[in-house]
């Protein structure tokens, strides 16, 4: 819902994300490294979206929201937070290691999604990525979806019960703010700068 998917896309993404999570747990018990777990999960998410479009369950424009929703569970949010905490605390080596882990995780996601797109090409499917709606209802829906996503992420990361409401409110506010900025409610400063400002610049040489 946050990226513009309809009810069918939401249902397919939910089922796909649950399947990815369960499959990851099964493979983890067998000692499969995390990189390959992420790759397989992203591949499953993208292939499910492609097959759903192929059988007519989804519109081609809903494939991208389904993939995005299904791979949320694979995003290294905890690793990013830990890397930032270590960097702030002065543990530079540990922070660098965590950042490298995040990069490998991102590479695995890109590779898995690329595999799904390769399957789509083999099936002669052209998947489109449509922009989300801009009506007031769309903005409100995305804000509420962001709050639910933030709340679910907090629960998945074993957050405290007292933190759930502030996390949900923060998710709604962040979505609202980003939507306003993306739709240029507050115009960005002109670039390049006006001639009056450029004339004051002093460049070496």
UniProtKB/TrEMBL annotation:
Superkingdom assignment: Bacteria
Xref: Pfam families: ThrE
Residues annotated as transmembrane: 35-57, 64-84, 99-120
Signal peptide start-end: none
Domain Threonine/serine exporter-like N-terminal: 1-118
Keywords annotated in UniProt: Membrane, Transmembrane, Transmembrane helix
Entry's family note: Belongs to the ThrE exporter (TC 2.A.79) family.
Protein name: Threonine/serine exporter-like N-terminal domain-containing protein
Organism expressing this protein natively: Angustibacter aerolatus
Species lineage: Bacteria, Bacillati, Actinomycetota, Actinomycetes, Kineosporiales
